[in-house]
Every structure is written in C-alpha cells, then in structure tokens.
Automatic annotation (TrEMBL):
Nucleotidyltransferase found in the keyword field: no
CDD domains per UniProt: IGPD (cd07914)
Catalytic activity field: D-erythro-1-(imidazol-4-yl)glycerol 3-phosphate = 3-(imidazol-4-yl)-2-oxopropyl phosphate + H2O
Annotated compartments: Cytoplasm
Pathway(s) of this molecule: Amino-acid biosynthesis; L-histidine biosynthesis; L-histidine from 5-phospho-alpha-D-ribose 1-diphosphate: step 6/9
HAMAP family: HisB
Organism the protein comes from: Solibaculum intestinale
Name of the gene encoding the protein in the UniProt record: hisB
Name of the molecule in the record: Imidazoleglycerol-phosphate dehydratase
Keywords: Amino-acid biosynthesis, Cytoplasm, Histidine biosynthesis, Lyase
EC number: 4.2.1.19
UniProt cross-references to InterPro entries, sorted A to Z: IGPD_sf, ImidazoleglycerolP_deHydtase, ImidazoleglycerP_deHydtase_CS, Ribosomal_Su5_D2-typ_SF
Length: 193
C-alpha cells in the first residue's frame, strides 16, 4: 500500500495526516472551513484517501495552520511515494470553475520547487486568507519533493479561482502518481532524489 502517516507538534500547531495514494475515505478538520473544503477537493479529485486533523493558533490567523498542514501533508506524500519507482512522474491538468480557469503541472522529481501565479480579488474566503493559497502549495511542494507549477489564468471570484487551483493540482498529482508498468524510477539517472 502506498500510504504515509506523519504527526507534527509545535508551539503553534498540532497536525496529523494520513494519506493513501490508492484511495480511501477522507476526514478533514483544520478549524478553517474553506481550507477543509479545499483539502477535501484535493483528496476527491486526486482519488486519494486523506485524513487531516489540525489544531492551530487560529486566534492569531490562519497562517500557521495552513502552512504547517502543507508541510505535514507533503511529508506524508513523500512517505507514500517511497523511492518513486514505477510511477508516471509527470502530470498536468486544466480545471475550469465557472468563470475561473486554473492549470497545474507537477514533476515528482525529488527536487522541490514552486512556481505560483495567481492574483485574487478578495483578501479572504471565509476564514482563509487568499495569500495562503501560495503558501500552502509552497509548503506542500517542498516537503513532498515536488516541482509544482500552479497558475490561475483568470477569474472574478476568489473562491472559484482557488478551488480551480486545488482541483487542477489534484488531477495533476493523480496523473503523476499513477502506477505504470515500469519497475524503476522514470529518470535517466536511475533514481529520483
């Protein structure tokens, strides 16, 4: 089974994540309703089993909870991927959400990098600061060892724009993490790290 479980405790957050790349149930509680909605979209559209329990210093703001959840989720993904043998490695996807359109492309390379291009008209969606969209993807990509490009091409509603970005990333990850007939890592070097 391609699973990963990580727990992390700091003075700001207490987070546990379980991920199953081959599917399963989802249970997500972060204390930030819109963020729960986005993580559920990530799990549903990526066909991942995902359990997230996060308690953070929301009396400050959502920053630590969102960023630290990205870190722990990325670490769990890295565990689930193991040595990355026999996966497609690359995935790209466009997702429309009403008036918004987003694109994501991922390389499960072991070389963390994020390119994020998205400007949101509202500063908040519910209790989620829209600037945290980029911070989440950065934390996740670096902890998981992914090269990840996310672009929100256009939109008018920040909810739709962010949701399109999460769903595009989910579908790109689903393609990249898919098991192929290969027995080794898809790399001229012979390994992905």
């Amino acid at each position: 089974m391609r699973t990963g479980e990580v727990k992390r405790r700091t003075r700001e957050t207490q987070i546990s994540v379980e991920v199953n790349l081959d599917g399963g149930n989802s249970s997500i509680v972060t204390g930030i309703g819109f963020f729960d909605h986005m993580l559920n979209a990530l799990a549903t559209h990526g066909s991942f089993g995902l359990k997230v329990n996060a308690v953070g210093d929301l009396e400050v703001d959502c920053h630590h909870t969102v960023e630290d959840t990205g870190i722990v989720l990325g670490q769990a993904f890295a565990k689930a991927l193991g040595d990355k043998s026999g996966i497609a490695r690359y995935g790209s996807f466009f997702v429309p959400m009403d008036e918004a359109l987003a694109f994501a492309s991922v390389d499960v390379s072991g070389r963390p990098f994020l390119v994020f291009d998205g400007n949101f008209p509202e500063e908040q969606v519910g209790g989620f600061d829209t600037c945290m969209c980029k911070e989440f993807f950065r934390a996740f990509a670096f902890a998981a060892g992914l090269t990840l490009h996310v672009k929100v091409l256009y939109g008018e509603n920040s909810h739709h724009m962010i949701e399109a970005a999460f769903k595009a990333a989910a579908h790109a990850l689903k393609v990249a993490c898919a098991v192929t007939d290969g027995k080794t890592a898809l790399s001229t070097k012979g390994s992905l790290d």
